[in-house]
């Protein structure tokens, strides 16, 4: 089972020696429709907030800001991914994840499944983001 894939877009583009060839980075799996969108997340929207997408993978691309996205697979330790502008993270279907922001706001482009999404907070003062 894949446990997450993070990469820097500029680095992956620079690694292409032949501009006629694509560089494959991973597989995106979805069992139905997916949503494409953008979101602005402030620090107050991440305290204790977790989500999981059972309907397919989620792709996040950081447009601005810095954060650590922690993935919690069903077995094994939590997996932190430090992300900044131009970084992307592919989160496998069914893996719970949470963000800790290092800047007041993070702006993201996302592709996420339309169905099978769950969100919760485990912090008594946490605010639901959506």
From TrEMBL:
<dbReference type="Pfam" id="PF07883">
    <property type="entry name" value="Cupin_2"/>
</dbReference>
<dbReference type="InterPro" id="IPR014710">
    <property type="entry name" value="RmlC-like_jellyroll"/>
</dbReference>
<dbReference type="InterPro" id="IPR013096">
    <property type="entry name" value="Cupin_2"/>
</dbReference>
<protein>
    <submittedName>
        <fullName>Cupin domain-containing protein</fullName>
    </submittedName>
</protein>
<feature type="domain" description="Cupin type-2">
    <location>
        <begin position="47"/>
        <end position="108"/>
    </location>
</feature>
<dbReference type="InterPro" id="IPR011051">
    <property type="entry name" value="RmlC_Cupin_sf"/>
</dbReference>
